[in-house]
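Quick look at the format.
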Amino acid sequence: MQLRFLGAEYDCQWPNIETRDGEVTGKYRGVVWSAKHHSATVAPTTPVTLRFMGRSYQGQV
């Protein structure tokens, strides 16, 4: 995914998170509402060089 802010462009790769449907929690206006459970894996972060008002700095994505 390519992001742009105030003319500066950034590349970003979002991690894939596995989810599975849980039990039905209830209904809201006739629509079934269920919980989702996320996997417990943590994606490693990568350092990126960002720029703010002409100054570069390191950030974690």
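Next, a different chain entirely:
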Amino acid sequence: MKPTTARLGLLGLAMALSACTTFTSEKIDYKSAAKAPTLEVPPDLSQLTRDTRYNVPGGVVSANALQAGQAAQAPTGAQTVISNAGDVRIERVGNERWLVISRPADKLWDPVREFWLENGFVMVKEDAKLGIMETDWAENRAKLPQDAIRAALGKVLDSFYSTGERDKFRTRLERRPDGGTEVYITHRGMIEVYSTQDRDSTAWQPRPSDTELETEFLRRLMVKLGLSQEQSQAAAASVRAAPAAPSARMDTVNNAPVVLLDEGFDRAWRRVGLALDRTGFTVEDRDRSRGIYYVRYVSPGEQKPKGFFSRIFSQGGEVADPVKYQVQVRSEGNLSTVSVLTSAGVPETSANAQRIVRVLTDDLK
């Protein structure tokens, strides 16, 4: 896309002043991208929306409990760490974190929805039956430089003063067998970069998911659900120092691409679910007893270009009919294999299978 001369000038001015301005990166102050100016993006950068079933099939991973505020040091990436406070606790396995709440999911839906609205987001997907809600793309305005230049520009030109980053969050509520609820928050990010050597145009491209930002929103949600700031900060601090997760690697089994994980089924199943949340798949169903996620996938080459906000910063967009696949997790001891099957359950060897396995591998590393 080609930005206006005024916008490019302000972008250049902001970059020139970046060395002498102070950014409030510690703060969070989101503004929905639905209120920002329309942009364009190459069609091959579009990503899919995702769904996940509401109920948790099977049991939960056993864990060693720690008191809130106690530093949690896990000797291996496979150990679960728990920090309790009231009827809300935060758990961690490796780099994944989530909340476990001793309340039924239907009692949490409205408070969780209010939480995102209070934090400046617009909801673009809400499905209480599936336990899924997703925000619009939004900008963290607290990352803008707080200086005299911005003050001089004022609100009249505020829409041109941008961080060049957008964030989207998905929240998944899953029922537990004990009547409680697990809450997962996953982040997706986009960043605006110059697309030409002359810096006369820009484009948006995906940036890595921010697990620390996910943890911060889990902490803030704990406050929304009744904990004090001190309790939530102690709980979040106890699970922040996570060891590196076991790495994933691609391989081939019977001419079909697979992901290999050096971990048992419980953790592999959870991690693959989070990876599907973060990387743009629609999960229509799941069968934990068989280790299968039922997903819909649209190849990037099959997507039809549309305007930026209707196709990237929202869920709209005209795309080709998605293809249904099964993503299967099979484990033997501490080794798990993640493979892509056709809708009929036959190993898939197509280029789409290669893409899916590569995307999952990159997120699971």
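Residues 105-118 form the longest helix (14 residues).

See the schema section for token definitions.
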